[in-house]
Amino acid sequence: MGNIYLIFVLGGLFGLIIQYAGLNRYDVISGQSGLKDNTVIKTILMAIGVGAILLSVIIGLGWASFHVKPFVLGGVALGGLIFGSGMALLGYCPGTLPISAGEGSLDAWIGIAGGLLGGWVYTLLVPHLQWLRGPDFGKISLHSMVGDIPEVYYAVAAAIGVFFILLAVTLNKRDNTSDRKWWIAGILLAVLNAIVFLHGMANRPIGASTSYPYLADWLGGTTDNAYFDKIQKPGHWEMIFLFGAMLAAFVVAVLRKRFRLRLIHSRWEKYKGNRPGKRIFWAFAGGFILIFGARTAGGCTSGHILSGGMQLAAGSLVFTLFVFAGLVLTGKGFYRKEK
C-alpha cells in the first residue's frame, strides 16, 4: 500500500502545479488552440528545456533510467493530429481533465466519459489498426544516437535544453505579459517528472492517457485481451496518479472558495453561445477523439510531450509537432465567432 500512497502524493503534487498556473482551465487550453493564449506552449517548452538538462544529469549519475517510447511514425503522426483536434474541441488534455473535474467543471466530467468510451473503442479496434500505426523505427533519442560518447551527449542535451528555455522566454516577451506562474510551473513539472523517473521512486515517466482504456476495459469487462495485458500496469499507476491530482485540486478549490459547478466557460460562450446541449455534445466528442488519438500515438501531453520531450525522444518530439498542428488547425476553424 505504501507504493499506492506514494503514487497518490505524486499525483497530488502534479495537480497542484497544474492548478497553480491555471494550465487545466478550458479558457487557457482552448485559447492556445486559437493562438490567443500561449501559456501552455511556454510552460511545456520550459519544462522540456529544464527537464532535458536535469534528466541527463540524474541518469548520468545512475539514479534513473530512460523510458523512451518507440518512434512509430504512423501512430505519432496520425495520433498526434487526432489528439490535437480533440484537445481543441474539448479544451482539456488527459492529465488536466481530472484536475478541472475536481474544481467542479462539469464539461470536464463529460470529457472523461467521452474519453473512457474512446479508450474502450480503441481496445476493441487495436488488433485491426496495427497496419495504420507503422512503420516502427524503434526507441530513437539523442542518447541512442550519441550516448556512446558521453561528452557529446551531455553537451548537446544541455544546448538543446537551453534552446527550449530561451524559446519559452522569447515567446513570453512577444506576449508582453508580467505573469510568471508559467515558468515556475514549467520548472516544477520538470523537477517532479525527474523525481518520478528516479529508481527509488516510480522508475517511470509521468503519464495520463493509459488510465482511460484501463478503467474503461475494467468497467466494460473487456480485460481478456493482449492490449489490456499490456496497459494494465501503467494504466493502474496512472489512474491512482490522476485521482491524487483530482483530489488535490478539489481540496484547494474548496479551501480557496473557488469550487464551482459550471458547464459553460467564458470563451465557449463567446464563440459558441450558452446552450448546454452543444457544450455537452462537443465535450463528449472531444474527449472521445482526444483519448482515441492518444492511444493511437501511444501517449499524450504528459507521457509523450512532457516526459518524451525531456528525454529528447524523436517520436515524442514529432508527436508534439503534429499535436500542435491538429490543435491550431482545429481551433482556428472551430472557434469562429458565430452569429
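Next protein, fold it too.
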Amino acid sequence: MFVGEIFGPDLLIVVIVVAVLVFGGSAIRKLALNLGSAKTEFEKGLNEGKSV
C-alpha cells in the first residue's frame, strides 16, 4: 500500500510544499543529492558482494 493511496495526492502536495517552506529548497536539494549518492554506493556494494 502506497502513501498516496492512504492520504491522497492532495495531502502529499501539501506536505511537499510545507517541507520546502520549512527546510528551504537548497536543503531539500542537498538531501536529494545525498540520497542519490547513498543509493549508488549501496548498489555498488551489492554488486561487489555478488561478484565475490
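About the second fold: The chain has a mean pLDDT of 84.
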